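dumping this here before i forget
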Amino acid sequence: MKKNETNTDTPISQDLVLIGGGHAHAIALSMLAKRHLPGVRITLISNSVLTPYSGMLPGLIAGNYEHEDVHIDLGAACRSFGVRFIEDSVTGLDLEAKTIFCQQHPPFSYDVLSIDIGSSPDLKNIPGTKEFSVGVKPVDRFLALWHDLQQSLLSKELTSPVDIGIVGGGASGVEVALAMQHKLKCALKYRKTSFEQLRFHVVSGSDTILPSHNAKVQQRYQKVLDKRGVQVHHDFRVSKVEEGCLVDARDAENPRELSLDKIIWAISASAPEWPKAAGLACSERGFIEVDACLQSVSHPNVFASGDIADVLDHPRPKAGVFAVRQGKPLADNLEKALRGEPLKAFVPQSKFLSLVSTGDKAAIASRGDWAMSGAWVWHWKDSIDRKFMRRFSELAKPMIPAENASVDAEPMSMRCGGCGAKVGQPILNRVIAQLSTRYEDKAKVALSQPDDAAVLAIPADKLLVQSVDAFRRFIDDDYLFGQIAANHALGDIFAMGATPHSAQALVTLPFASEEKVEQQLLHLMLGASKVFDACEMPIVGGHTAEGAELSLGFTINGLTDENQLLTKAGL
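structure:
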């Protein structure tokens, strides 16, 4: 049995919301899923259902993996973990009201918040970068460009040079360069087409490649690049990007220029603007400042991990290896925060294993001053990466239901079942006040002037067509579920040739604290109202109760002329 908001043993009293499907969040969720968190509803908000594992991305580009091999299905993982999944982009926070704003959903409230949204190449600070280059992140956008580039290059004979440049001499830049070269070389060889016209360039702002690695790794990788004909442009600091050209204008009288047909940006990570705009303590570059517990230094109920976080006590490069290692301490401290317990500091290793692939099935390994390379290193890396992915592809065991209610959760047995187990009137009033009343003139008595029943005036020359439909919740997104339930209920009215007139709702909500009940009801009704508004019809009343699990239904009133009525008997 999954421990989620439908668990009838423990009313919901706290919301833990995770924004972003980064590596640390993926690991933290898999761990939290197996722990007793009574009264806690966990929600993951991500702008994509599929999230890529960065360690395997060069292998995907090179053709060593399939798309599904390197992507975590967050929706499937959340279903297994008993976690609510919301596909949307976050646009802002109200840190005082503890509210999250999204592009396509009503606001979500939280008690404890965690942010792991990664970073993207900075395409704003250097003129022309956004117009004339593409970043390796967001990954889905880059993969689409990579697909189009392959189609373009492989669909014709290359009669003149094609220069592809990757800006960035770090691991991301050199791995992507060799992966792209390997894939195209193999494809052209298969088509018996010359590879000579295809030229790759790596542009490094340093006087070496892989500046964060030891000298042995740098030397080994430089030999690979030289052997494969990849030209490295050292100490080239891009000042601006023009169409088909990179410019280093430090020497204004004699600027360096590099002509390229395709420019790919794999350097200078940047953060989205909304965390800093919300008031979180952030660095000058916009990354959330956290302490050794991964807790915001300005807001104790907010945590951050992965590339979006700057750990002030232990600065580290923005790389996937560190995000992965933050997963367990993040899970531990989120649990402690929910329980009101002291947090535990996390000290990352100063020396760590680094595995850098070389396009083909070979790689270079290093730790400290040690370095080794060869095909065996790639197979070692492949084994580590696949083991990481299996914890999500095979999915973790569902969460164990809590045995005892949390401190501030009211036991289910104490909840009132009288009066149809109604939700309290103050909650209903606050929700109704936020719903559309645009088409209430179709009713004599409706939500804006509530009474014991709705009153409708039916035109004398019309037939009243009524239908009732309801079902149990089958997705965790309440706003979307409200839209689905409303559309489903309208189906029979349309099938009989009637025009929708008005609706009444029948809602059963899982037991929860008042504020949690209110937000869930609001999301359901706003979703339904979106559909009903499109049909120019009001919600005129209904009944809302608490029960074992969420269900939603509507009585739909429709009007039609007698000669327009469609019945099965008339078919």
